[in-house]
From TrEMBL:
Protein's cellular compartments: Nucleus
Keyword tags: Coiled coil, Nucleus, Transcription, Transcription regulation
Protein name: Myc-type, basic helix-loop-helix (BHLH) domain-containing protein
Keyword Transcription regulation appears in the UniProt entry: yes
An individual GO BP term: intracellular iron ion homeostasis
GO cellular component, one term: nucleus
CDD domains: TRX_family
SUPFAM superfamilies membership: HLH, helix-loop-helix DNA-binding domain (SSF47459), Thioredoxin-like (SSF52833)
Gene3D superfamilies per record: Glutaredoxin (3.40.30.10), Helix-loop-helix DNA-binding domain (4.10.280.10)
Amino acid sequence: MDIASKYEVKAMPTFLLIKEGVVVGRLVGANPEEIKKRIETHLQSNTHLIDHFPVPGGELPSLEPGFHWSANSFPGSTSVVRFQELNEILDPGRSAKTDKTVILADAIRMITHLRNEATNLKDSSQDLLVKINELKVEKNELRDEKQKLKTDKERLEQHLKSTFCGPPTAFYPPAHPVMPVPCPGPTPVGGNKFMPYMGFQGVPMWQFAPPAAVDTSKDHVHRSPLA
């Protein structure tokens, strides 16, 4: 963050060419060809500075355009091996590249592509989380609605049962008690007569009559009181 603030880096990726603490080149965005061109231009204009610094293990190879690094460019160094491993990761199964600038450009392009894919996946993940939360809320609402409908159904069933639960379809008179047998004794004058025993109760029969017979709404027409 300190370096980004110092050199006013506002976007990623941003490539800076710095000479003696001063930015001599700036490139925003992943453009391998432009990056390669800027690096080669900067190196060609400053090749005289390389001679002032000793290089462990031997001299640096030429920096001319089109130069290819050989396996013996840095004796005893693992730089070439690492670049070969990087090239194998970028293009598995293909012929090895010897131009390190091309390898770096491919690596930058691959990193940019992966970063864009990661951003897209992150956005998709956020959208899926929002949809999952919405579905959870809708599921809870449907559960509550289902419970409410179940309660209403039970209430309606109870109401229907209480509404259609009317009198039985047939009435049976109570059983007639057994008439007591009179004890044998002297027969009174006038014959053996018993008092009538009313053991049957009145049974209402209006409910078995047709509706037209019990309808009294037109009695004033059919049975006028002045007739």
